[in-house]
Design a protein that fits this description.
The chain is α+β, with helices and mostly antiparallel strands and 159 residues long. Helices cover 35% and strands 26% of the residues. It is globular.
Length: 159
Amino acid sequence: MFQATSYSGSKNEKYDLVIKQLKALIEDEPDQIANLSNASSLLNQFLDDVNWVGFYLWKEDQLVLGPFQGLPACVRIPSGKGVCGTAVADNEVQRIEDVHAFPGHIACDAASQSEIVVPILKDGEIFGVLDIDSPSKGRFDEVDEEKLVEFVQTLQKYI
């Protein structure tokens, strides 16, 4: 049984704990949707100052909304469009301090000010992205990026 947890220690230590929790949640479950649902919920509970945490999955040459926590969101995003589509097109993390300064930003939640998107690969091919928004500019730093990449690398082993 899970319950809300307070995390203590350094930022790195907190992320290390949430990554261990992710592994414990998903290592024995083969269903991708269940695992992505728990992963989004876990991150939403763990991260402070975020207003959207979720996944877009690569289907039919576009990103399609997957499991998430937050307000209703855009359903389909083409490659190269917005922060998520750019992460797919470039196959690299997008850490955006001010989404309003990002050319072609797709505003699903008007409260979002910053965003981080981490590509997810399966068998070397794009599977989707982890997308996290914050209502604060500059919310995500190098540690967030490094540890969210590690979070996704752990998740990739079970999808």
